[in-house]
Design brief:
The chain is α/β, with parallel strands linked by helices. It has two domains: 195 residues, Type I PLP-dependent aspartate aminotransferase-like (Major domain) (Aspartate Aminotransferase, domain 2, 3-Layer(aba) Sandwich), CATH 3.40.640.10; 97 residues, Aspartate Aminotransferase, domain 1 (Alpha-Beta Complex). The chain contains 13 helices and 13 strands. A seven-stranded mixed β-sheet has the order 2-8-7-6-5-3-4, sandwiched between helices. Helix 3 runs antiparallel to helix 10. The radius of gyration is 22 Å and the shape is globular. The relative contact order is 0.17. It comes from Sphingomonas natans. InterPro entries: Aminotrans_V_dom, PyrdxlP-dep_Trfase, PyrdxlP-dep_Trfase_major, PyrdxlP-dep_Trfase_small, TAT_signal. GO terms for molecular function: transaminase activity.
């Protein structure tokens, strides 16, 4: 990148970046078995909490908190432009690191504030005209679903909301629903990679074929896959993809990314343009950096995200996916044996992951969940499908079988 006259890269900035990278390296931890006390002890999570809500927020590592707090103090002690020269370097390094994890280039990654923001950029940035059709699903995250409802009303678009199959039978059957809904007027398809309601894992690659056939834009909300699933975005065939750091990635709050395929970026407009605090060359506005020009940012968070990736790399992407799937499968088996509990959704590994929703027919599920938190500090989430209230469990690598059996015992007694 070229040096800039205003906040550009300098030799001093690059040297500082090297020092930061070296400082982060010792944070890497030896691989420890999933669900062990040793792994949980690396988190700041209170020992009395039975935490099964990674689909909402996952606790982060003590080392990440230390890095973020230390850098925040350093920033506030010296918020000079000269000190902040290192942050564009950190942002470049982070885009490259995230791109490598996703099988894409740094030029296709924008650093945003969460997945909802990424979704909204995709919703608002496409050029559409009255009568154009957009396909979404019933269980899209509200940041996508409500934004599309608002835009459809404002711009005269036709919004098709597909029912989310609660008991899907095969990936192809799910993809066929999109094929039947698509028409020559379909211009965009938006869905969640895994729904946060019933945990359905959509067959994105097959749906991408439907989108390509109709020349439609495919955006996937990856909030429930980014961080635990190994992702190859070109293989999935998406045009854009969003993710957050505070869920399965176990990183800091209020950070995320938007991937936009390089040859499709001219079709997606940025929703805001301001001073580019991390922009070192105006030519980078020809890349996905155009979507992150949002004004002053939380610069110290860049180092917290990188510290998180250091931890995850020490564990290994393949290991994390294997163990996360194992935690989900193990808990599904345990909960299925609880009298009166009914697992909702598919148990097929091709259609499911670590998000489990459970119905308790005949019980007041809202009261049950509240009681489990108040009396036993069991942290879950509430969901609803087909008119039934559900409790959502989302185990992660820090959850042990002992904890899962504790949950089952509490459900039996409640």
């Amino acid at each position: 990148m070229a040096d800039g006259n205003d906040g550009g890269l300098t030799r001093r900035g690059m040297l500082k970046a090297g020092v930061v990278a070296a400082a982060l390296a010792p944070a890497a931890a030896a691989v420890v078995p999933a669900g062990t006390a040793a792994l949980r002890d690396q988190l700041l999570l209170a020992p009395d909490i039975l935490y099964f809500n990674a689909a909402n927020i996952a606790p982060t590592f003590r080392s990440v908190i230390d890095v973020q707090e230390k850098e925040l103090r350093a920033f506030q002690a010296n918020p000079s432009r000269e000190y902040r020269e290192k942050y564009p370097v950190a942002a470049d390094r982070l885009r490259a690191r995230l791109g490598k994890r996703l099988g894409v280039t740094a030029e296709e990654i924008a650093l945003l504030r969460n997945c909802s923001e990424a979704n909204t950029v995709a919703v608002l940035g496409l050029d559409l005209k009255p009568g154009d059709e957009v396909i979404v699903t019933e269980h899209n995250h509200q940041s996508t679903l409500d934004s599309w409802k608002l835009r459809a009303k404002r711009d005269g678009l036709v919004l098709k909301i597909l029912p989310t199959p609660v008991s899907a039978t095969s990936p192809q059957a799910v993809a066929d629903d999109f094929a039947r809904a698509a028409t020559p007027r379909t211009k965009a398809i938006f869905l969640s990679h895994i729904t946060n309601v019933t945990g359905l894992l959509y067959p994105v690659a097959a749906i991408a074929e439907v989108a390509r056939k109709h020349g439609a834009w495919l955006h996937v909300d990856g909030a429930q896959t980014f961080g635990w699933m190994q992702l190859d975005l070109p293989a999935l065939g998406v045009d854009s993809y969003g993710g957050s750091t505070h869920k399965w990635m176990m990183g800091p709050l209020e950070a995320g990314l938007l991937y936009v395929r390089r040859d499709r970026q001219d079709r997606l407009n940025p929703t805001m343009l301001s001073h580019g605090y991390w922009l070192t060359d105006t030519r980078n506005l020809e890349t996905a950096q155009r979507y992150e020009i949002l004004g002053q940012r939380d610069d110290p968070k860049l180092e917290a995200i990188e510290a998180t990736l250091v931890r995850l790399d020490a564990l290994g992407e393949r290991w994390i996916e294997t163990e996360t799937r194992a935690r989900g499968s193990e808990m599904r088996h345990i909960l299925a044996a609880v009298p009166g509990a009914k697992i909702v959704g598919s148990g097929d590994p091709a259609l499911s992951g670590p998000i489990l929703t459970v119905a308790f027919p005949g019980q007041d599920v809202t009261a049950l969940r509240a009681r489990l938190w108040k009396d036993h500090k069991l942290a879950t989430a509430q969901a609803s499908a087909q008119g039934a209230a559900l409790i959502r469990f989302s185990p992660h690598i820090y959850n042990s079988r002992t904890e899962m059996e504790q949950v089952a015992a509490l459900l039996v007694r409640s």
